[in-house]
Design goal:
By secondary structure, the protein is mostly helical. The chain has one domain. It has 9 helices and 2 strands, in the order αββαααααααα. It has a two-stranded antiparallel ribbon. β1 and β2 form a beta hairpin.
Length: 219
């Protein structure tokens, strides 16, 4: 049974979304039905996010291993060694995009849950009003535990990539100085831009607030 079906059955009575006093309304609430449908759709879409991020992280780590093996094998062409660090850029850029999308969807789910809890009148003020999954996950990800894990992960990946970048330039700049310098400059600038994009992904409230304001103005 979905949340929407429970709302239509013998669930706790529903309060009007516009009523701050939460007066009980025994009839159906179309606003809450639409809210629950949107919430369920976003939760379904969000269920694929962690698997995609794990797959991307695994691919990036595997690529780092292949590039490291290429650098150790001195029989590889020097032009290939010079260009090897550029293979990481698409993975890291797409990872920044997915992280931003995931953060924005998480913020949207959190606001849906907050609005749903506001519309539901619990049978007792001491009972926990569902749904609360988004709020709990938000507390984990934005707490000290989640922040520490993310920082350690980014530092580890960045340190490994910097080592690959430096070693690639050292091994290739004698034979292909222009190509090696171009690859080094491009990868360094791209990495800085991607880090800025990751930083923007930490503040999804701005995206949601700006879009809500735009929709309100166009309505």
């Amino acid at each position: 049974m979905t949340i929407r079906e429970a709302n239509r059955g013998s669930a706790p009575s529903v309060a009007s979304a516009a009523d701050p006093q939460r007066e009980r309304n025994p009839g159906p609430n179309p606003y809450l039905d639409v809210l629950l449908a949107s919430y369920e759709a976003e939760r379904l879409a969000d269920s694929n996010g962690p698997a995609a991020l794990i797959g991307l992280l695994t691919a990036t780590i595997g690529l780092s291993g292949l590039v490291g093996a290429l650098l150790i094998n001195h029989g590889a062409p020097t032009w290939l060694i010079a260009l090897a660090p550029t293979a990481h850029i698409p993975f890291m850029a797409f990872g920044a995009l997915m992280a931003h999308v995931s953060q924005v969807r998480g913020e949207l789910i959190y606001r849906y849950e907050r609005e749903i809890r506001r519309c539901i009148s619990p049978p007792s003020p001491w009972l926990l009003v569902p749904p609360v999954g988004g709020a709990l996950m938000r507390r984990v990800w934005r707490g000290w535990f989640g922040s520490s894990v993310v920082v350690l992960l980014l530092i580890s990946i960045l340190a490994g990539y910097i080592a690959i970048l430096v070693e690639s330039y050292r091994l290739s700049h004698d034979m292909h100085p222009v190509l090696a310098l171009s690859a080094l400059s491009f990868c360094s600038c791209a990495t800085l831009v991607i880090l800025v994009l990751y930083a923007f992904a930490l503040f999804p409230e701005r995206v949601v607030d700006s879009e809500v304001e735009r929709l309100a103005q166009s309505a």
